[in-house]
Structure formats: structure tokens, C-alpha cells
Amino acid sequence: MDEQFANFLTNILILIAIFIAAVLINQAIRINYIYLVGLIPLIFIIFMIFYVRKKLVLEGLYQTFIKEWGEKVDRKRNLKKIRSVFDYMSEEREDEFYLDDQTWSDLTMDEIYKQMDRTLSSPGEELLYKILRTPLFKEEDLKKRNEIINLFQEDKKFREEAGMYLLKLNKKKMNDVPDLLWNDIDADTRLRPVCMIMAIVPVVSLIAFLVTRNIGPLFIILISLVVNYILHNNIKKKITTYVSCIGYLNAIIVTASDISKLDNEKFKEYKDLLGELSKKVFLIVKRSVGVGRIEGLDQTGIMEILYAVLLFEENQFFSCINLIKKYQEDLKKIYVTIGEIDALLSIGAYRQGLKNYFHPEFTSEDRYLEARDLVHPLIEEAVSNSISIKEKGIILTGSNMSGKSTFLRTIGVNAVLAQSIYITTASYYKASFFKIMTSISPEDNIMGGKSYYFREAEALLRIIEEGGEDYSLLCIIDEIFRGTNPVERINASIEILRYLEVHNSLAVVATHDIELTDMLKDKYNLFYFTEDIDKAGMVFDYKLKEGVCRTRNAVKLLKFLNYPKEIVERTNRRIEESSKV
């Protein structure tokens, strides 16, 4: 059933139930208290409405999950929010290597992430992002991760059981749980006793009115509701951020408890960890029941009024917030573990949809990369290329649009996938463990007043400063210093590439400056891309060739685009004259 329709139907049924309840209470006051007995089945019916609605929506999601396993999932993603767990965890573990923002952007990893993301929960989409930005450097860790991914791919029953629990958790539109768990909780609980007393007053006064039929308790009810509403609005401003995510945190703990019941020997480590942690923190669930609203009722405003006048969320919040403080580290472990399980399930679905992939092999040798039939995972019907490089890096030349930048990204993306999700889009891949850094598309920073050259210089400096002391550095660079004049560009480029070569770096560099190939041919392997010209214009085969490309196609491109003949001819004449000098 469509969730929007289910919400609408639920709201209509609840409004009908409230109308019937009002009639029964009115009759009980005017005629006979026996009418109050009618409220008992009515309350039961209301709960059944929610239960049936939830079951119908969940069943729809479950069937979609089964049917679309292995298919790409198109949906809106708030990547700024999704990266929050990565940001928090990278601050905690500063000694670990992560793909920096420049590298992530250069390799268009946002698009890779979107292609791979089939997660079912908010922790899952956040941990998938974190996994892709955190290359591993031990093959045993990658194989351990791969074992769980294979379990999800191969064991349909296990996969669907885990999927059902994660579907129950689902995604939160604005997930603030990481902010709660990774920050200091500074909540003022001094009003807790007042809220506890004031929540009781309207209920006790209502009972007194029904028993005595005296008008006095009605005045007390009215006054207490006004006071409670004022309290609610004042406290809400201070605790809204916490309250909005405690309900989802509650669901995460329940999901951890459920998943700990899954029985598979390969899954034992996750099962034991979640079982132990969920038992330890389950009191939070009991104390936080109802916090965060009941989904489907918020649209009517009914629950907002009830929660406000009875101070329900405030009292539940005060009851559980100290427990959340106490078990903050355990809750972070639960969050990360649930997210990791969901992320590995998503990776399994992604792999299922790939036509071909290869599990990488790793070597203890430094600066080694060998790959056959390597393609970019985002390009359909991509032309494959093979490469074998050891110790020496690559200088790549070629015409415009011939495939240089795509090849750079293909190498970088596959190195990332190899060290994060243990696959490559190749028929064979063997390499060192690399730190991966790039300088492909640094941009002008207009607001910051930084020129293109300045951004290039910054991007290259971070690569130089990272170095390759513990692991080889795979540095991928497109056009060193294209933002400055040829004389300074060429000479600075030569020195930078020589520096990288002696500091355990495997540099893969694309350039239009043929002078670099002449000066560095003893230090770097030379490859190129080129094109053919036929009646239709320029034809690119996108195949990597050994050697140096001595042809240029910039003027040919002007001619192909029907630039004025005068411009094309004079440009060619100038080039010929300058080459004679």
C-alpha cells in the first residue's frame, strides 16, 4: 500500500474514532457512566488501525526489496547529512587515512555512491559513505568484510530476514542521531519534577470531575492545560533537537536486538556484539517509548496537542536523557554496527547488478599496479584498457577528448573500490596497498579570492605533504599547473614529478606538455591516447597505447565545429612558423 494513502486513511479513521469517543464521554456525563465502557474497545480499535497500517506499508516495502534486489535505487539523497558520521569518525581517528574532499570530488565518488546505495536505513547510508571514504590496508580485513557481503548475496533467506528488520527501522527524513551521539549532551533537567506533577494534574482533575460532577475540577483542568502548554513551548525550544531523534534511536536499539537473533556462523561476531550491547542499553527503549511522535498522526496536529498538554515528550525525555549520556559510547557502537550491516547488504545488491567484477589481489611490493580490461563503473559499454606499472609512474599524453581524464578516474576509482568493497571493474587487478590522492579538477574559488593556479598549487601541495612513508602513494594528476605560463609550468612540473618519484609515490599524470616526456622518460612510463580523422570528423578509440602522442587536435576541433576558415588557416600558419623557430 502507498504510504501517503495509508497516512491519509489512518488520519480519517482516527478522527472518526475521536468523534465517537467525544459522543460517548458526553453521554456518560449526561446520562450514564456505562457509556465509558464503550471507550475500551474504541481504544483497542485505534491501536489496531496503527498496527494494520504499519503492517501494510512494511509488507509493501518488503516486496519491493525482494523484487528489486540488485537494481539501482533512484531517490533524493542529502549528501551533506549522509556524510555526518564520516566527519565525526574521521575527527575521532585522525591517524587513519581517508579520501580527502578533493580526491572524492575528482573521482566523482558522489555518483559512485549513488549508484551503489541500496541501503534501507539512515545508519546504513551513512556507513556506506564512510566505508567508501576509508580505504583499508589489510587484506584480512577486506576478506572479512567480503565474507559478510557474500553471505547476503548467496543466502536469500538470511538476506531477507536481515532486510525485514532494517526495513522496520527505515530511513529518517532528517536524521540527527549522529549529532546526539557524537556531541556533548547539555540538557537542562531542572524542570523535570514540575513536568511530572503538571502531567498528572489534568488527569486527576478529569477523574474528580467525572466522579463529583462538580464544576471546580474543570477550572483546574483549564488552568493546568494553559500552564502545560506554556511549559511545553518553553522547554521544546531547548530539547527539540534531542527529542526529534530519540524516537529513532529507540528504533535502532530495537533493530539491534532483533538482528542479534539472526543465526549464521559467519554472522556470529555481529550477532554477539549487537546482542550484548542491546541488552545493556535496552532500558533506554522503555524510558523513551512514544518520544518522536507516532508517524501518520503528526499531519493532523492531534498528537501535537495531546503531547503538549500532557507534557508527554518532556517527561519521557527527562526520563531517558541521562541514560543516553551514560551509554553514549555503546550507542555509537550500535549505530555504526547496524549501519555497517546495512551498508554491506547494499554492496551485495550492487555487486549483484554488475555484469562483471574481480576480487583484487594485493602485493607487499611498493608502487605496483597491474590491471587487465579495466573500465569505469559509471560508463555503460565502456572501452576497457590494460596497464602494468611497477615502481615507475605514468606520463599520459593525448589529444583533447581522447580519454585521458576518464582513464585517470578509472584507475583511481578502481583503487578505491579494491580497498573498500573488495572488487574492481576489471578482469584482473593486482596492486600495492595505496594511499590515494588526486588533483584533477581544482576550481577557482571566487568567493575566497583564490585563482585557478592557487587552487592547483594547494591541491598538489597536499599530495606532496602526504608522502608515501608507510604505504605507497597513488597520486593521480591531470595537467600540472595548467593555470600558469608554459615556462614556469614545465619546469615546476619536472621538479614535482621527480620529487614524487623518489618519495614512494606512483604518479599517474596526464599532460599536453610533450617536454615533460622528453625530460622524464627515464623516470616514468609513457602512454598516450589519440584519434583518427574520417569524413564524419574525429573518431576516438579510447585505447591506451605505449609511447608519446605527437599530434594535436585543438585546431582540428575548431575546424570540426565550423569556426571561420580564416581563423583555422591563420592558426595553423602560426603553429608552423613557431615550430621553425
What would CATH call the class of the domain at 361-550? Answer: Alpha Beta
**Low-confidence parts lasting 5 or more residues at pLDDT below 50?**
293-300, 444-449
Beta strands, count = 12
| Cα end-to-end separation | 77 Å
The biggest sheet amounts to: 6 strands, mixed
Question: What helical percentage do the residues reach?
Answer: 55-70%
Order of strands across the widest beta sheet?
Answer: 6-7-8-4-9-12
The number of helical runs is: 23
Provide mean pLDDT, rounded: 83
Fill in the CATH topology of the domain at 361-550. Rossmann fold
CATH superfamily grouping of the domain at 361-550: P-loop containing nucleotide triphosphate hydrolases
What integer value in Å does the Rg equal?
A: 31 Å
Q: Based on Cα principal axes, name the global outline.
A: elongated
Strand content range: 5-15%
Q: What class would the helix/strand composition place it in?
A: alpha/beta
CATH architecture of the domain at 361-550: 3-Layer(aba) Sandwich
Overview of this structure, please?
The structure is a single chain. This protein has 581 residues and is an alpha/beta fold. Among the domains are: 67 residues; 99 residues, no CATH class; 190 residues, 3-Layer(aba) Sandwich (Rossmann fold), CATH 3.40.50. The chain has 23 helices and 12 strands. The strands form 3 sheets. The protein has a 6-stranded mixed β-sheet, sandwiched between helices. It has a 4-stranded mixed β-sheet with strand order 1-5-2-3, with helices on one face. Helix 19 links the parallel strand 6 and strand 7.
